[in-house]
Design a protein that fits this description.
single chain, OB fold (Dihydrolipoamide Acetyltransferase, E2P), five-stranded antiparallel sheet, disordered N terminus, DUF3540, DUF3540 domain-containing protein
Length: 219
């Protein structure tokens, strides 16, 4: 009697395994798949990461007609465009290996709110680069740059340092209006010639003005 009941329970299942065409994608993620002139409205299985598109050929399976899922996309209507989609977070991990993203044309990373890179060492190589940031902060212990040429164009530049050292063979500086220097002490030394020329030149000292040389020419 027990064997008969077990056989009856097993035979009550009518498994479904069909291949059809995706005809509609619903807002809640469910898909309508047409198989042999019948439309099946089924949810996508968690294992099916490839997002279905209208016209794709899909495999639907289930233990009975009330529990049918879209298991896999067999062929794509547009094979040149594929999307891996999950309703929640997605982690791609290789615990003991590496992860490589490779594309024949371009690779894009987009985060609607935030994108972060965290690593012990970062290498970036490119033939040409462009960075566009509205507001940027950089924090680090040191910065070294080796450049063939450097050009900075902006409305204002402010540098606050404990010490600034500059070494150059030639320096040319042009100020169309006013250049002001405020310092506790100023020491300027030239090996050959120092020239100060203007339409009006004023040299003033509060306590002392000293001019010392082997020869002094005035006039």
């Amino acid at each position: 009697m027990a064997a008969s009941a077990h056989a009856h329970t097993f035979s009550s299942y009518d498994p479904v395994q069909l291949i059809g065409t995706v005809t509609q994608i619903h807002p809640d993620g469910r898909c309508t798949v047409r198989c042999d002139a019948r439309d099946w409205e089924v949810p996508r299985a968690a294992s099916c990461l490839l997002a279905p598109q209208t016209g794709d050929t899909a495999l639907i399976c289930g233990p009975d007609a009330s529990q049918v899922y879209l298991i896999a996309i067999i062929t794509q209507a547009a094979p040149l465009a594929a999307r891996i989609d999950t309703p929640g977070s997605l982690v791609i991990a290789a615990a003991r290996g590496s992860v490589t993203l490779e594309a024949g044309e371009a690779v894009a990373l987009r985060g609607a709110r935030h994108t972060s890179l965290e690593t012990a060492e970062l290498d970036i190589q490119a033939g040409k680069g462009r960075v566009t940031v509205q507001d940027m902060d950089y924090l680090g212990m040191g910065l070294r740059a080796s450049l063939g040429s450097l050009r900075v164009v902006g409305r204002s530049c402010e540098v606050v340092m404990d010490r600034i050292s500059q070494l150059a063979r030639h320096i040319f500086r042009l100020a169309e209006d006013t250049e002001q220097v405020r310092a506790g002490r100023i020491d300027q030394q030239a090996e050959q010639t120092v020239r100060v020329h203007a339409r009006h030149t004023l040299v003033t000292g509060k306590d002392l003005v000293k001019v010392d040389a082997d020869q002094i020419h005035m006039g």
